[in-house]
């Protein structure tokens, strides 16, 4: 009887060991497969998404203060205030600071896939410093980059009221693109859920605000029960592939919802939220505003963008609202076309960060934008100096 019991126990142990060995072999094969298929490079992407953003009670999400994200190419540094800056921005202006510009926007102003020194804000700051230092070498300018990926005018509005106006800028630079129309609708849904305290709806709308990126995992490092899974996502090609595929499915679902919204809503109805948020932003800013609208790649190629079939109406509406509020309005499509007409062998491709990207300016696009804004600010400064004299 005892021998039978020992035999039974030995069989259980051997069976368990065989199962564990099979699992290990299968996992090792899976790791090899996904590693050779490039998924090993997605692990830093998970780390970036869980570190670069944090949930925010008012805005929905914001940059994680003090983060240096080397997984991105080029790397991204976020200062202690949550802005893409290499330094902290003092609220009180230094005595030698002649011009301060506050920029509001999403990934375009943020400078997605562009090195910080090649982005709009750094380029503009350099041009202004060089111009003013000709007469006084001690004078400097400050262009504050508060752009946050996936934000909308609804969030620019809240940010300006809570933080932006405290910097007492001379100009407010607002960067807009066709994404902002549907992003405003998403933000309204999130904001309504936030005010009612519906936590389930808040989480669902956060997914839409961030285009599917799961922000709730930003706190996993602090939860004991999730540490192992968090470690696996960051170091395992298999888990990284599973994470990336789940994000892909979520993005696909959100994009389908967005397409349905565009398909079933006439532009006047679709743009009602955008019109309201953008108008309120211009009404509350006491400083001169410079409004930039960035075109899609398809519109620069003379085609209608499937993602933004309303783009021309959006640009006209933005120009109309800007002029009604006395703001300077610049359609960057005109600036881009002028560059393409002047430059030899220039193409639309070099204006965007990659052949696949349909919206984000390259270093060339950012420089053209900085030059355009510099010309406007220089004229405004000249007019101000003339009136003071």
Descriptive account of the structure:
The chain has helices at residues 2-36, 43-52, 107-110, 120-133, 153-162, 179-196, 199-209, 227-235, 237-264, 267-270, 272-284, 297-300, 311-324, 332-342, 363-388; strands spanning 53-56, 60-63, 68-69, 76-77, 97-104, 140-145, 171-176, 289-293, 328-331. It is globular, with a radius of gyration of 25 Å. Helices cover 54% and strands 11% of the residues. The chain folds into two domains: 2-37; 43-388, 3-Layer(aba) Sandwich (Rossmann fold), CATH 3.40.50.1110. Helix 6 runs antiparallel to helix 7, helix 8 (227-235) crosses helix 9 (237-264) and helix 14 (332-342) packs across helix 15. The protein has 15 helices and nine strands. It starts with a helix and ends with a helix. The strands form three sheets. The protein has a five-stranded parallel sheet with strand order 6-5-7-8-9, sandwiched between helices. Strands 1-2 form a two-stranded antiparallel ribbon. Strand 3 and strand 4 (76-77) form a beta hairpin. The chain is α/β, with parallel strands linked by helices and 389 residues long. Mean pLDDT is 84; it is low at 216-225.
